Amino acid sequence: MVKRSKASTALLPMICLLMIAADNRQPTLDGPLRLVPALAAEASYKHRNQPLPERIAAISEVFLGLPYADGLQGEGRPPDLDPPARYDSFDCVTLLEEVLALAIAPHPASAPDFRKAFRYRDGLPSYSTRNHFFATQWVLRNLQNGLLVDSTETYADAIWLEKELTEDTWRYWSSRQKFELSNYDLPKGIFSFPILDLETASAVVEHIRPGTIVVTVREPRPNVPIMVTHVGFTVPADVPTMRHATKMGIGRVRDHSLKWYLEHLTTYKNWPVKGVMLLEPIEQGPRLAGLK
Q1: 233 phi and psi angles, rounded to 5 deg
Q2: Residue pLDDT, tens place only, 78-95
Q3: Does residue 290 sit within a domain?
Q4: How many domains is the chain built from?
């Protein structure tokens, strides 16, 4: 029997590794921070007592203008020898993970633990436990571990999409060979999640809260297990603004008007966009106010 998974309702207690106490040590660029750009570590620390959307905006501002590049992060061991983190280029998911980790961590030194929590099943780094597939692994697992909440239906009536993944789905997918995963490690079952169609999302765009993760969902295709092709996040601004690592133009980390972006998605003809999913990160663990 195929097991049904509803991502928006599967909320479990947050995992223990996230209960990291905040402290007031100044960030120093050694140990876990030796690869973190000084400005990003300083922004994380300086804005630690501000609301989460402001922390997300301040940290991600450091990365504006950096180039877009796919697939540059790994576990540093076979089958992916790329490093766990790098800060000279990003794709849309790695930008999101690094910014959320630095924003949610009570101190920049603990950001790698949060990155691992977002990126891996149970926070345990390995190629087979990595959340390779955004909707059916990254989103679902981070809803389950209490790092995210699905806020799509709080804005308007949503469409519920349902996608069934079977062994045949993966077998006949043309990109299957790009993933060195056993059949056991591939997500299977019926997955359901809500989206707002583009017209509806545009109608409520002024109400979408800063700090929201905007997930671009394409029309379902037979024998194609993926539907999510891009992700960004909103930052506080005079108009609703989406910050993302994008291939558009020269390919870089940049800001776009969220209203413009939603309108731009209507121009995708070869693989039309069905709508967007809206998620929000959740504060984790104790945060001490007024640290000096």
Answers
A1: -145, 150
A2: 999 999 998 999 999 999
A3: no
A4: 1
Sheet with 189-195: list strands edge to edge: 4-6, 189-195, 159-165
Q: Residue 290 CB: number of other CB atoms within 10 A?
A: 6
Contacts (Cβ under 8 Å, ≥6 apart) of 103: 44, 52, 55, 56, 59, 281
pLDDT of 126-150, one tens digit each?
A: 999 999 999 999 999 999 999 999 9
| CATH number (domain holding residue 231) | 2.30.260.10
Measured between alpha carbons, how far is 39 from 55 in angstroms, rounded to an integer? 13
67/156 Cα distance (integer angstroms): 35
Residue 28 lies in a domain: no
Q: Which of 222, 7, 273, 21 is nearest to 131 (CA)?
A: 7
Task: Look at residue 123 and give its three-state secondary structure.
Answer: helix
Give the amino acid at 123.
G
Q: d(Cα 136, Cα 77) in Å, to the nearest integer?
A: 25
> Looking at the domain assignment, is residue 17 inside a domain?
no
Structure tokens at 129: 């436990």
H or E stretch including 192?
Answer: strand 189-195
pTM of the model: 0.86
Q: How many Cβ atoms sit within 10 Å of the Cβ of residue 61?
A: 16
Q: How far is CA 64 from CA 61, 168, 239, 251, in A?
A: 5, 41, 18, 11
Q: Tell me the average pLDDT across 226-233.
A: 97
